[in-house]
């Protein structure tokens, strides 16, 4: 099943989960007349239901290497980007975050790999629970800890940030699709020497 198919199936499952959650709330009497702590627990339960229902395949994906030291990978990718004139995309994320996993999955779809992905060097950097690779986060001038994940930083071949104001644009990647990511990349990526006519 393609990512788009998983996305559509996930939306149907999410709608079902919302209906089930609403029914559970109605049956339990947890309506609007509940304390803030109960509303918080209800919201967390709803988030867990939606996260689990969104996409079973995504819940099993673990694209961020929790054991790897990303520093050498980032250094090598920077060098390749500089040598080839391509941009460098750093995706700061973690496997516990369904949006980070969704964004990483989008990068493997044809909308990206056969389009703007050809003009990119990409590195997925595991930040754990904001306790890993914080030196890399700081080295790129980002606030430590990050405000959320995924945080997507794109640099031109010279190492200058592109679209840095949208670092957290994909924090809700589950509600997007590979086409939206491809369109965004097309608008921000400079052409490589092979693209110029």
UniProtKB/TrEMBL annotation:
Highest taxon listed in the record's lineage: Bacteria
InterPro entries with a match to the protein in the record: Thioredoxin-like_sf (IPR036249), Thioredoxin_domain (IPR013766)
Ranges for domain Thioredoxin: 43-190
PROSITE patterns hit by this protein: THIOREDOXIN_2
Name of the featured protein: Thioredoxin family protein
Species: Marinicauda pacifica
């Amino acid at each position: 099943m393609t990512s788009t198919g998983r996305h559509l199936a996930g939306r149907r499952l999410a709608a079902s989960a919302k209906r089930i959650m609403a029914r559970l709330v109605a049956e339990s009497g947890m309506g609007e007349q509940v304390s803030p702590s109960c509303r918080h627990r209800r919201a967390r339960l709803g988030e867990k239901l939606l996260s689990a229902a969104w996409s079973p395949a995504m819940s099993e994906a673990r694209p961020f290497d929790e054991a790897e030291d990303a520093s050498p990978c980032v250094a090598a990718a920077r060098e390749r980007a500089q040598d080839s004139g391509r941009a460098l995309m750093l995706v700061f994320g973690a496997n516990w975050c369904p949006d980070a996993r969704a964004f990483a999955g989008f990068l493997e779809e044809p909308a990206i790999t056969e389009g703007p992905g050809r003009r990119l060097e990409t590195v997925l950097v595991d930040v754990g629970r904001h306790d890993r690779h914080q030196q890399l986060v700081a080295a790129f001038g980002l606030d430590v800890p990050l405000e959320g994940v995924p945080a997507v930083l794109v640099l031109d071949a010279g190492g200058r940030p592109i679209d840095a104001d949208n670092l957290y644009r994909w924090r809700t990647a589950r509600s997007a699709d590979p086409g939206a990511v491809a369109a965004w990349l097309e608008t921000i990526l400079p052409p490589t020497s092979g693209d110029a006519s």
